[in-house]
């Protein structure tokens, strides 16, 4: 049985970054005041930190298997995301994502990947961005809501935001909590590739006076095949000393994405 949870988590987070370029600035001023206020509060309530260290419990499920793994996570905001997966204290895989590169290796298969976002964009046909991956892990919307006009609706669950102009290939929808303005759910659909992803945040927690995700559920569907990834933050500390040890072992085979 191959080891998949950490690699699949990284790939799903990366795939969630698919999209297109920002609209021109002339359109951004057409958002009404009520919508602009909701968006403003979403960013005012964003988690503020320089570094982060924590532990995750990750559950991975596809049509063939279910696996559970413990993951150590470290961040330097806007600079690096590092994850190390293990079972019963035995290291199994590591990933290091920076604004310019994605590096990964897995011990069981003896394989690795070392590339940049441009390479992944060419292979996967998506436009990738480090900040979007970071936002998913922090409970922020994948896209910067301040860069284009949005339509605001209210529901029993909170504020529903969708772009005034949806792109032909991609449909986007965001749900924000009415009290905390944190992300409750976000959905992206690639209409051309029969691909969709839904990220929900069932619960949040308060850490050092800040609202931070407690659970993240990801459902990725491609060609009618579902991959489920459930993430639970077991512990989180802000502004602690962190390091990002990463060295691809010799003799490993390079992963070729097709």
Please estimate the helix content.
Answer: 10-25%
Coarse shape: globular
Spans of at least 5 consecutive residues whose pLDDT stays below 50 are: 14-30, 120-126
Largest sheet, described in full? 14 strands, mixed
Determine the number of helices (DSSP H or I, runs of at least 4 residues): 4
Mean pLDDT: 82
Question: What's the SSE pattern?
Answer: HHEEEEEEHHEEEEEEEEEE
Q: If strands are numbered along the chain, what order do they take across the biggest sheet?
A: 7-8-9-10-11-14-15-1-2-3-4-5-6-16
Strand residues, percent: 35-45%
C-alpha-based Rg, rounded? 18 Å
Overview of the structural elements:
By secondary structure, the protein is an alpha+beta fold. It has four helices and 16 strands. The protein has helices at 5-15, 33-44, 117-124, 130-138; strands spanning 51-61, 66-76, 80-87, 90-98, 101-106, 111-115, 150-155, 158-163, 170-176, 183-190, 195-200, 204-207, 210-213, 215-222, 225-238, 253-254. The strands form two sheets. The chain has a 14-stranded mixed sheet with strand order 7-8-9-10-11-14-15-1-2-3-4-5-6-16, covered by helices on one side. It has a two-stranded antiparallel ribbon with strand order 12-13. Strand 8 (158-163) and strand 9 form a beta hairpin. The longest helix has 12 residues, at 33-44.
């Amino acid at each position: 049985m191959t080891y998949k949870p950490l690699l699949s988590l990284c790939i799903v987070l990366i795939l969630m970054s698919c999209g297109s370029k920002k609209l021109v600035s002339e359109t951004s001023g057409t958002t009404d005041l009520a919508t602009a206020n909701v968006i403003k509060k979403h960013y005012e309530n964003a988690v503020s930190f320089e570094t982060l260290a924590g532990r995750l419990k990750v559950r991975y499920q596809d049509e063939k298997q279910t696996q559970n793994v413990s993951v150590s996570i470290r961040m330097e905001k806007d600079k690096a995301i590092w994850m190390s997966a293990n079972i019963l204290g035995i290291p199994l895989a590591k990933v290091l994502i920076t604004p310019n590169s994605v590096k990964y290796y897995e011990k069981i298969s003896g394989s690795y990947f070392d590339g940049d976002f441009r390479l992944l964009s060419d292979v996967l046909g998506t436009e990738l961005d480090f900040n979007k991956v970071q936002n998913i892990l922090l409970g922020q919307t994948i896209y910067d809501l301040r860069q284009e006009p949005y339509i605001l609706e209210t529901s029993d669950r909170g504020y529903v935001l969708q772009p005034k102009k949806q792109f032909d290939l991609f449909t986007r929808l965001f749900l924000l909590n009415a009290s905390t303005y944190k992300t409750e759910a976000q959905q992206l659909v690639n209409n051309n590739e029969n691909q969709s992803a839904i990220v929900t945040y069932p619960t949040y927690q308060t850490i050092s006076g800040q609202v931070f995700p407690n659970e993240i559920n990801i459902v990725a569907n491609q060609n009618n095949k579902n991959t489920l990834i459930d993430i639970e933050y077991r512990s989180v500390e802000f502004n602690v000393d962190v390091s990002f040890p990463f060295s691809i072992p010799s003799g490993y085979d390079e992963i070729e994405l097709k």
